[in-house]
Write a structure and sequence with these properties.
By secondary structure, the chain is an alpha+beta fold. The protein is globular and about 65 Å long.
């Protein structure tokens, strides 16, 4: 028996950074994200009679991927958790890959754990024809493996503030590009970043700031107030990176190249009074969200940068 599944990455505009005590990836504050359908993870599950335990292999034909021992353990433990949840018998070869670089601030854990959850659900349904889960329930299961993966169950917009995410109605369909400043593996994992940020003196007010920005962003989205959307998203990603730089011990992801890109984008807004929505994940790379009428100009803005884009150049 063999099943396949795929899931997209997502980019949070209001950030998930910091967890409630007690584990299980419950967020310390709400988050709101846009789903990146062109950046995807793929998972296959194949029952292998001769296997005494489950095993993981890279899925060929995609970006080269190599899981760390910690990452491999976390991924396979999530599969075991889902097998127990849905009473899936047997042992399986788990293969996964992305069509984009992993572990560099492009939310590959979100897409890969969502894809693994969907693949395991398909496998469970093959064994139990009566099994039915809603997207919200699948989101809650996926969250146990990777918090941000719960948002990848919905497209194009998702909000998460509790056990799982939910899709939200926003009348904006956007294009996405990410400027690849650094495609190497991050020196500090997202899991470690979550653990460190609550040592920052900026941490005590962080949940309140996130709630305030969420309210402001949802109002701006409903009004399609592009400048206000940009302002909220700009301040939000700087807030997250300030937590990194003021934690104990401090760490950071922004490079000289990152700062040069951000300065160019700021100058663009100052000159034209318009530009892309700018945000960053926990990495050095810079994400842009654009209206469809901006694509022609965006090809000029992005000239000279290595990028991944949702449109054909």
């Amino acid at each position: 028996m063999k099943v396949e599944a795929s899931a997209p990455s997502n980019i949070a505009l209001i950030k998930y950074m910091g967890k409630e005590p007690g584990g299980r990836n419950r967020p310390a504050n709400p988050s709101l994200s846009y789903t990146l359908e062109h950046l995807r993870s793929f998972v296959t599950l194949e029952k292998i009679q001769e296997l005494m335990i489950d095993e993981w292999l890279a899925l060929p034909g995609f970006e080269p991927i190599e899981l760390s021992q910690v990452g491999l353990k976390k991924f396979m433990e999530h599969f075991m958790r889902l097998k127990l949840q849905w009473k899936i018998p047997g042992n399986y070869r788990v293969q996964s890959a992305n069509n984009f670089p992993a572990d560099c601030g492009l939310a590959s854990s979100a897409s890969s754990f969502a894809a693994l959850t969907l693949a395991a659900y398909s496998l469970a349904q093959a064994h139990d024809k009566n099994l039915e889960c809603t997207r919200e329930e699948l989101s809650q299961f996926s969250r146990l493996g990777s918090g941000s993966s719960c948002r990848s169950m919905f497209s194009p917009w998702a909000e998460w503030s509790g056990e799982g995410a939910e899709g939200i109605n926003v009348a904006l369909e956007l294009e996405h590009a990410v400027i690849l400043v650094d495609g190497d593996r991050k020196s500090v994992s997202s899991s470690e970043a979550h653990a460190r940020v609550n040592t920052s003196l900026l941490w005590p007010g962080r949940p309140d700031r996130a709630w305030a920005r969420l309210k402001e962003l949802k109002t701006a989205l409903s009004r399609q107030d592009w400048r206000s959307i940009y302002d909220v998203c700009w301040s939000e990603f700087w807030d997250m990176h300030a937590l990194f730089e003021t934690s104990k011990p401090s760490f950071g992801f922004m490079s000289r190249g990152t700062l040069d890109v951000l300065d160019q984008l700021r100058q663009l807004w100052l000159r034209d009074k318009d530009g892309p929505i700018v945000t960053m994940d926990a990495g050095a790379n810079v994400h842009l969200l654009l209206r469809s009428d901006q694509i022609g100009r965006a090809n000029t803005w992005l000239s000279g940068y290595k990028t991944l884009r949702s449109w054909s150049e």
